[in-house]
Amino acid sequence: MNIKSLLLGSAAALIAVSGARAADAVVVAEPEPAEYVKICDVYGAGYFYIPGTETCLRVGGYIREDIGVGDGGSFDGVNHVTDHQHGDDDSTYWKQTRFTLKTWTGQETELGTLKTYTEYRINFGNSYGDYGTPGLAGNTEANPNAGGDGWQARNKTSALEFAWIQLGGLRVGADESAFDTFIGYAGNVINDTIVPYGNFQTNVIQYYFDAGNGFSAVVSLEEGSGEVGTIDSYVPHVVGGVKWTQGWGAITGVVAYDSNYEEVAGKVRLDVNVSNELSLFAMVGYGSDNNLNDPTNNIDALGRGFYKQWGGNWAAWGGGTYKFNEKTSFNLQASYDDWKDIGVAANVAYTVVPGLTVTAEVDWQRVGQGAIDNQSVWVNATKKDNVGGLLRFQRDF
């Protein structure tokens, strides 16, 4: 009987203890429903849906390191700086590190595709050019003997390069001029503006039209930029272009009206895909410059407008790309203008791993007599031949 009572008592005690522990148990809340990011493949690789919306977003950019040596007039070196230890006249590298952040968005609407694009750049490095003689190409700072510090490495520009909205064929915002974007840049070399072929950044109101069968067109109202390029009235700069694209290549033409000086410039370009490995291009430009030679103009604009950046009335550019394999390509560009300026740039670009490319380039510039006679500050007028080289490391993501 005592044993039975003992067992019953022990069982009652265990039940009581268990009940006490159950009452003290922590109640775990049910997890909130999670909305995971979904891939959006409508506009290409890298896009994803912004949670809770129908907008697709892509984030990317690059980090770049440029190292340049050579003559200041070829935009590759920094000449005539002061030796810290001995006070001698030296030359040094031109170096620049850039971080660029890009965003793209896309969304389908009843009025067409709604897209945006932004690009912001931040630079650190020293300025290129000849600092011994103020007023020459690249000399954006004072003579170093007068206390200038233009060759010193420092945080440089940070700039919003692109920020535009496009609905269907209508685009508004900050972009590069259709005078260059629609017809194409002058080759796959780094220094493609030894003989310049147009100006770039501007606010735009553009309309793109795709007529089918390879035909397309653009009309662009532009504000310009800079001291002599920005419009000074309610009349905008106007750019129009037409293009015919086929499997063998393309033929493109653009015409621009500079409202500040009432001058016209145009370019025609031929692209040819010779083979899977070889592609070639040739481009010619012509522009009027009667009012651009007004001596009351800023010397930076002497003979040049926002669109006709080359010397004299006409200029030509040509070159191409040859792909040795999936990783290695050779790029060449040659240019010449009415002032007898000559530019040649050649490089080899090698993709080390996907997303990392190393490019080695050599540049040569021959300053024409027309540039010297017109006191152009775009070239080093004290030296007719300039040679330089660039080494670029770029990580795209």
TrEMBL record:
Location(s) in or outside the cell: Cell outer membrane
SUPFAM superfamilies hit by this protein: Porins
Membrane topology: Multi-pass membrane protein
A GO BP entry: monoatomic ion transport
A Pfam family recorded for this sequence: Porin_2
Gene Ontology MF term list: porin activity
Record keywords: Cell outer membrane, Ion transport, Membrane, Porin, Signal, Transmembrane, Transmembrane beta strand, Transport
Signal peptide stretch: 1-22
InterPro entries: Porin_alphabac
Cellular component GO terms, alphabetical: cell outer membrane; pore complex
General function of this protein: Forms passive diffusion pores that allow small molecular weight hydrophilic materials across the outer membrane.
Comment block on domains: Consists of 16-stranded beta-barrel sheets, with large surface-exposed loops, that form a transmembrane pore at the center of each barrel. The pore is partially ocluded by a peptide loop that folds into the pore lumen.
Similarity annotation: Belongs to the alphaproteobacteria porin family.
Protein name as catalogued: Porin
Species in which this protein is naturally found: Mesorhizobium australicum (strain HAMBI 3006 / LMG 24608 / WSM2073)
